[in-house]
Protein: Receptor-like serine/threonine-protein kinase
Organism: Cucurbita maxima
Amino acid sequence: MASVHISSYFFLLLPLLLGFPFFSNSQPYKNITRDSSLTAQNNNNDSYWPSQSGDFAFGFLQFGSDRFLLAIWFNKIPEKTVVWSANRDGLAPGGSRVHLTNHGQFVLNDPEGRPIWSANLGDNAGSVSYAAMLDSGNFILAGSDSQVLWQSFDYSTDTILPTQIMKADLISSYSETNYSKGRFLFSMTGEGNLVSAYPSIIPMRRTATLYWKSDTQGSGFQLVFNLSGSIYISEGNGGRVVKVLTNNTPSTKDFYHRALLEYDGVFRQYVYPKNGNDTSPSPWRKAWSQVSNSIPPNICVTINDGIGSGACGFNSYCSLGDNQRPVCSCPHGYERIDPNDEAKGCKPSFVPQSCGNNSSSDFEFVSIEYSDWPSSDYEAFSEVNEDWCRRVCLEDCFCAAVVFRGNNCWKKRFPLSFGRVDLEFTGKALIKVRKDNSTFKLDHPIKKVVKDKTLIVIGSILLGAFGFLFATFFIAYQFYIKRRKLGMVEMPPVLGLNLRIFSYEELNKATAGFKEQLGSGASATVYKGIVDDCVDNNLVAVKKLNNVVEEGEQEFKAEVRAIAGTNHKNLVQLLGFCNEEPHRMLVCEYMKNGSLADFLFGSSKPNWYQRIQVVLGTARGLCYLHEECDTQIIHCDIKPQNILLDDSLAARISDFGLAKLLNKNQTRTMTAIRGTKGYVAPEWFRSLPITTKVDVYSFGILLLEIVCCRKSFEAEAEKEDEMVLADWAYDCFKERKVELLVKNDEEAKEDMKKVERFVMIAIWCIQEEPSFRPTMTKVIQMLEGAIQVSTPPDPSSFITSIM
């Protein structure tokens, strides 16, 4: 952390460091006199007291049909963002009233006059002359001499604002929409460390796990959020500021600021433009967070023992979602206790195995890869195999699940706790569930056998259908066995997707002994081939893996999985494959015009109109992969060499060898760095979870290359500052010299509005903070002019860390 001198901050911080509120009698604010009150009424937008400027409001916010939160919120933005609340653990019913009484008390009563909450005035009870909602977001109760007797700034809930000193522990909200007290604390220790803590026992809130600490021991004892938007630790005695946590944040003149402990236990600072013209994906932008430095990157793994259920509820498991927030899921065969609250955990949708006459044959296992429930063990075994591990759990009526890794087996008991998916964990969890045809399922109560002719007829029909399906399966199985004997290796279940299976001899003949090479890479070579009755012109491209090793096999299976189920005009179509050891090949459509790299950087460059169509086609193909496929696909290697051009020069995305497939409950994944230098998003190098935004980043670089008709890095550039295209493009945009990017392209220079729009879109796509990058749907809307493109910031301007 950086140190700063007293001269830089003293006069700005003096009122903060002395503990006084940042206002005076000369500062305009509206007095709320004695006997003033507000009543919680349905659909009543006037149940609040605004600050002088109208930036903040104090009053009632309605939740549901007839429940109200007494709160302070930002009042000039569409999102009524709450910064403080009085009755967060018990919403008030309609008709409740907050009243500044004639006796100087400030109390919230229900419709029958019973107190729900009151301001803790202590010895000052009865001395309050008036209240005021200040433009700082602070609500005060003051005496006749304007001395502040009580202020909301002293009783923070989960948020602090500029000009505020954190005097009370922050307690996170329960969820994004539930403002009641949640699972995490944020406080300052006596030694000067900031800590985020996980209170394992609710509602006792005993701290079991320090989720994060700032390592600022000895630096001071006050956390200050100053008027310039910086958050730091001070000595609090009128002396110097010791440690600075944030700097270079946007001005509080132009942006609203807030810092809060969010429901996932992370302390983050956000800014929001006051002009209201921001069209970025999320107007509340993250300016800083503890995540950027020393916080453990995976909350699911960090909180893994003690009393309690973990980051998610009992019998559920945790995986990382957007912005590293925990996503809680139920295993197959389980359902949420509360459909509207994923943190409450899951319950079995079947009757668990009893220790009576239940047969173990009534149960089976659901496998969850990379998952563990580390705190539910009651027996462990070593030097065993997976079948043995399954069997020992089936025979044990107390066993709810087993975790198997290597040659080790752990039995788990109910309720399962601290469940998580960890891609660094090489084992799997096997959850014991009752078979689908069991008569003990909760939603299928035991039924007596009824001798009814109608049931007998239906049973006969079903039995006949079953016999037919069994015969079909038996024939298919014999065919499969025969192919295995010929050297076929087991593949993922993609054979039902109308793919043709080629033998090695067929493809050797089709390519004339792999004679005509179309291209090559680190792991594969592509050859031109002729195959009868495969496509209209019989021409195909045969991609042959060079090295048949374990990684090559995984890459081959990944590519088949990725493109076998896709169907889009901007993707190269997979026609079939060969999987005979040691030969693994893919057979795809033949693209007459080769790759975009050849077309873009060759001697004959495409015209401006053709380049626009390539941009749109590539964007639509990526949007399909990210948002329209049954299985979301992250391509991971978008670059000109992997964009092929068909007969009409339409873009076709190809080469899915590095693609990552996400499960339906996933939005991100952890994986080793993959892709091509120059197109790889920054989060790959920070060991952060990977989302579809890595493809958006690569598309941004590609878009600049297409606009400028030059490579992303050119060592032979005329000027040194033009070597890196992304940096040069932003400099040109910032200096309003975008025309320099297309100085030798007359067609593009005649369409400068579109050139500038495309450059702005590209800069949004290459933002170093993934959450700032738009989705591909929004990219398409911006490219087509359906929505306005706002001015992008410097791509690295919001990447900050604890200094």
Q: What stands out?
A: The chain has 13 helices and 46 strands.
